[in-house]
Amino acid sequence: MFEQAWFLFTHFENYLEPLFQTLGSWSYLTLFVLIFAETGLVIFPFLPGETLLFFTSSIAAYSTQTLDIRILIPIFFFAALIGDAVNFEIGRHLNKLPFLKNRISPEKMASANIFFKKHGAKTVIFGRFVPLIRTFVPLISGSARMSYRHFGLYNFIGVTLWVALGAGIGYYFGALPFVKDHFSVIFISIAGIALIPSILAGLLHLFKFITNKKARS
Hints:
The chain is an all-alpha fold. Helices cover 81% and strands 0% of the residues. The protein has helices spanning 2-10, 13-23, 26-40, 49-62, 69-92, 98-101, 106-127, 133-143, 148-174, 177-181, 183-216. Keywords: Cell membrane, Membrane, Transmembrane, Transmembrane helix.
């Protein structure tokens, strides 16, 4: 049983490719929803955006009948762009929510506003490449009253770079025989590396919580 589970774990592409082929055009809609939900719905920061980008682009390189890179690129681009725009709008109305009115002080909002005036471009562009962080950058940008004109420009640049690099690298490596032969192991390794920032952020939050709790007691 262990050997069967291990084989499935290390050869899952043998099952996913037929799944994509069965879904047909619905595969692209599913991918659009997943990428959009990662940032657009705020509550799904754990979704592996760049892992999906790399994984599906690699499949498109060696199995053109399964996925088409010419369709994948605009799907990922518009899903990320629209998701960030929705997230930004949620941020603009964040301080109007009843349960947050008394928790976000004017001082904190002023500090966030100053930060995004100084570092907004770098944060929006390069935050797109950091899992978990990219979910909250549009939210904070909106709540800090960053102008949509600036956010839209920086976000366009960030999403363009993210899709171009992710799809380009995935498509290039997917065409290599070594990558095709060890696809599952490489995919799992990339997914694990992508989770490191999220794990570190969670541990830091837990450490601060424990420290504050001890200080109060």
